[in-house]
Design goal:
The complex is a heterodimer of chains A (119) and B (108). Chain A has 119 residues and is mainly beta. Chain A is 0% helix and 45% strand. Chain A is built from no helices and 10 strands. Chain A is globular and about 40 Å long. Classes of the chains: A mainly beta (119), B mainly beta (108). Chains A and B meet through strand 5 of A and strand 4, strand 8 and strand 9 of B.
Chain lengths: 119, 108
């Protein structure tokens, strides 16, 4: 069974950085993109980008280029999202997801990680 | 255009049929997927590649497209269908995904 388990909630001050992890199990981690999606409180879903764990190739959503880093460690089947120079409007739940609807491993989401940016 | 537009809120009477729309240029060439999200939960895929349902999704949920607009139809709405619904598609390059702004469905 496919599982994505994310790291716990974080509270950060403006200007700081945060790194969220997403540990995958139950499928071949290196063979499928990992996507990151965020959702600000009371707002909609926002696609941040995706990474190919095998090649490291990344596509970013337009507004996230420059402040966002996506990496993977295939030895431990874990993806990471790092966001720098945090601002209050970065307060959101951050999800990792496979988004391979209709084919293995399917459309699976992590439980979400709440990142709160507050002075 | 790289946007998907949804009505912010829609309501439906219990047992009736409701259609939720998602409009965007990308939908002329790519299929939409649809998600349901309840408070405090991750989104759940309802429909992919226009009108396919993952295992466990009731056939009350169906998808279709006309021109630049995708539709999610819920037949026989139930109280448990009250949730936020999001469409998802990709841009013309195929490399960037995007979500609609979401539609809050109220079941009366």
């Amino acid at each position: 069974q496919v599982h994505l388990v994310q790291s716990g909630a974080e509270v950060k001050k403006p200007g700081a950085s945060v790194k969220v992890s997403c540990k995958a199990s139950g499928y071949s981690f290196s063979s499928y993109y990992m996507h990151w999606v965020r959702q600000a409180p009371g707002q909609g879903l926002e696609w941040m980008g995706r990474i190919n764990p095998s090649s490291g190739n990344i596509y970013f959503g337009q507004k996230f280029q420059g402040r966002v880093t996506m990496t993977t460690d295939t030895s431990i089947n874990t993806a990471y999202l790092e966001l720098t120079r945090l601002q209050s409007d970065d307060t959101a739940v951050y999800y990792c997801a496979t988004l391979t609807a209709g084919v293995y491993p399917g459309d699976e989401w992590g439980q979400g990680t709440l990142v709160t940016v507050s002075s | 255009s790289s946007e998907l537009t949804q009505d912010p809120a829609v309501s439906v009477a219990l047992g009736q049929t409701v259609r939720i729309t998602c409009q965007g240029d990308s939908l002329r060439t790519t299929y939409a997927s649809w998600y349901q999200q309840k408070p405090g939960q991750a989104p759940v895929l309802l429909i992919y590649t226009q009108n396919n349902r993952p295992s466990g999704i009731p056939d009350r949920f169906s998808g279709s497209t006309s021109g630049d607009t995708a539709f999610l139809t819920i037949a026989g709405a139930r109280a448990e269908d009250e949730a936020d619904y999001y469409c998802r598609s990709r841009d013309s390059s195929g490399n960037h995904l995007m979500f609609g702004g979401g539609t809050k469905l109220t079941v009366l």
